[in-house]
Amino acid sequence: MQSSHAASAVSAAFDDANLIAHAGLVPVMRLAERCGLGRLVADKVKLTSAKNSAGAAAGAKVTSVVAGMVAGADSIDDLGVLRHGAIPALFGGIRAPSTLGTFLRAFTHGHALQLHAVHRRFLAALATHTPLLPGSGEKAFIDVDSTHKRVYGRTKQGAEYGRFKGIRTLHPLLATICTPTSRPVIATVRLRRGKAADSRGAPKLVSEALATASEAGCTGTRILRADAQFYSADVVAACHRAGAHFSITCGMNPSIKRAVLAIPEGAWQQITYPTAIPDPDTGELIFDAQVAEIPAYSAFTGRKKREQVTARLIVRRVRDLARPATAGEQGALFPVWRYHPIFTDSPAQTLQAEREHRHHAVIEQVIADSKASALAHLPSGNFHANAAWLTLWAMAYNLLRATGALTSAFHAKATTATLRTHLVRVPARIARSARRMTLHLPRRWPWQHAWTQLFETVHAPPDAARPH
User: Looking at the predicted structure, is the pLDDT value of residue 444 above 70?
Assistant: First the structure.
């Protein structure tokens, strides 16, 4: 491809007041309105003690931040993307980035909890109005994990040296919901100091995530999945209180090691994964392994009797290729194995339960998505402002996932970066006639039919737009 005109024959001017670069915000934010985002914020978020009227019109400010994140904003200044061209003609109540920054800095811990309540109810509304979690009435998985977000500002509250030597981080904790046929959505999030332990606050977050899953229509079997840092009696107790199952990786402590080494050789079953999984110790890709089960293993025996739990111990073993086989008494070579146990009360058969647990890694896709979008930065020096920013990102993420679910089978599984490219970042020119506005979009847009499907669905009468 090359330029078709000489450089002297081409000029540019920023002078058209009827153009917009993000026409997809029209159907996306219409969906947010249908799900009552602004109303939920007005009902729940009360920043009455904020100075300089920072807490006024909270609904308009929250929807402005969410819309900016949907468009790809990853800092407060980037929220100015909503004020270009003819966007103010399509949306009312858009706030300037400086106003939104003042609003976020007015948050306290209590206000952040109010925003969490909005997030939960907004997710439930999205699940009601869109096919966000297909099959949730039969089975749903709730995944819990933590991540570290590197920060550079020395005055950023809560940023500390933690797990990574010489690197200052903040330490978000999050939980997601998915079904066997859906991409994950975010159930709840928490921002913590950089050196906070991985499991700090996990039991409370697990309880909230399980309750959120129920509100979002997960009325069937619910299974909590987590890594070894969440292997605790308190997390398991939270699952029991909520009537949910658990599937948690556990380390090779002396009790588990004795139980694993006592498994007879004939009890191991071969398992082949449809797609390779990374080994948690070495990072190498694994296609085959062996699995065995201990039907009744008593965990947390150092706790009070009522806090001890007896459940299944499912163990996966793989050959340790880094260590040579050892010679036995009769000269035979015995392979060296590495063991990866999970503690679970899942009702599934052994191999199925093991496969389902390994799919817990799907939460890593959400974490990667966050760091490639709104969590590329935690934009404020104020800890509670960043906590609010984290929750608002979760709302924007779920809104984009619901948008994809309404659009097509492909977009229901696409990443949010793809959804922005196909559905949101669409240029358009506004034409007005007879009190009506028409968006003129590019001819031969590759995803024209998907965009039209989304637009017509969210602009149909509410009963017609609701999935059956």
Answer: yes
Angle between helical axes of 448-458 and 25-34 (0-180°, round to 10): 30
Q: What span, in angstroms and rounded, lies between the C-alpha atoms of 104 and 379? A: 10
Q: Is 445 helix (H, G, I), strand (E, B) or coil?
A: coil
**Does residue 324 register a pLDDT over 70?**
no
> Residues 6 or more apart from 55 whose CB is under 8 A from it?
45, 46, 47, 48, 49, 103, 106
Give how far Cα 263 sits from Cα of 218, 291, 300, 320, Å: 36, 11, 20, 18
Residues 6 or more apart whose CB falls under 8 angstroms from that of 371 comprise: 147, 149
Contacts of 246-249 with CB under 8 Å at 24 or more apart are 246/311, 246/343, 246/344, 246/345, 246/346, 247/223, 247/342, 247/343, 247/344, 247/346, 247/353, 247/356, 247/357, 247/360, 248/224, 248/342, 248/343, 248/344, 249/280, 249/340, 249/341, 249/342, 249/343, 249/357
First to last CA, the chain: 47
* DSSP H/E element including 289: strand 285-299
Rounded-to-5 percentages of helix, strand, coil across the chain: 40, 20, 35
Which residues are CB-neighbours of 258 under 8 A, at least 6 positions away? Answer: none
pLDDT averaged over every residue in the chain: 90
Structure tokens at 102: 């003042």
Could you give the 3-state DSSP secondary structure of residue 456?
helix
Spatial CA neighbour of 394 closest among 70, 38, 57: 70
Strand-pairing partners, residue 186, are: 176
Could you tell me if 69 and 396 are in contact, meaning their C-beta atoms sit under 8 angstroms apart?
A: yes
CB of 211 closer than 8 Å to CB of 179:
no
Q: What is the largest CA-CA distance in the chain?
A: 94
pTM: 0.92
Residue in this structure with the two tokens 């935690």, named with its chain if needed: 378
Q: What integer is the mean pLDDT of 216-230?
A: 95
157/382 Cα distance (integer angstroms) = 6
Q: Give me the sign of the Cα torsion angle 396, 397, 399, 400.
A: positive
Residues 6 or more apart from 459 whose CB is under 8 A from it?
27, 30
